[in-house]
Design a protein that fits this description.
- There is one protein chain.
- The chain is of the alpha/beta class and 170 residues long.
- The chain has helices at 17-30, 53-59, 83-89, 119-123, 149-160; strands at residues 6-11, 35-39, 65-68, 73-76, 95-99, 108-112, 127-132.
- The protein has a five-stranded parallel sheet, sandwiched between helices.
Length: 170
């Protein structure tokens, strides 16, 4: 099975990543695309709630722990997965939008809170566009407002070249 295209939304803490990802999911979903997301949790704290069954399973040394309920399933492994590994485990979809994973090598929409964040552009690979909280210009990358989900989605669409989906009205 072919992995769907992956695009990342990156920025420093509180730059609006979750808001932009959510807006893009709604925008691409309105076009009839199945969009999956992946999020990098850059903190050392635990993702699971202590003293729950799954936490106890993991604490006992399970090599992986899975949980399924009526509306949600998850798998924990005692290691950090790369964005590629996470994408390979997602259900079939048309597009994966990743929040974070600055070091991964996929197209990135970069969010800048202020001018002090400009070095992020030099730290990441494959930057395809910018949204900033301030008046920002860039010599080669498009700069769009943070809430211009339609414009950002169209720029991402062109970048990842989902040509087989063009008949959906873009």
């Amino acid at each position: 099975m072919r992995r769907p295209p992956i695009v990342q939304v990156v920025g420093f803490k509180n730059s609006g990543k979750t808001t932009v990802v959510s807006g893009l999911v709604r925008r691409f979903g309105a076009q009839g695309l199945r969009v999956a997301t992946a999020k990098h949790h850059g903190h050392a704290d635990d993702l699971d709630v202590p003293a729950t069954d799954t936490a106890l399973h993991r604490a006992a040394g399970a090599c992986a722990t899975a949980i399924a309920s009526a509306g949600l399933s998850a798998v924990w492994e005692p290691r950090e997965l790369s964005l590629s590994e996470l994408a390979d485990r997602l259900p079939p979809c048309d597009l994966v939008i990743a929040e974070g994973f600055k070091g991964a090598n996929f197209p990135k929409w970069v969010l800048l809170r202020d001018e002090a964040d400009y070095p992020l552009l030099a730290q990441v690979t494959q930057a395809i566009g910018i949204s900033a909280w301030f008046d920002c210009v860039h010599p080669t990358l498009p700069v769009l407002p943070l809430d211009d989900y339609d414009g950002i989605a169209k720029a991402i669409w062109r970048t990842i070249q989902l040509e087989d989906q063009l008949e959906r009205g873009w």
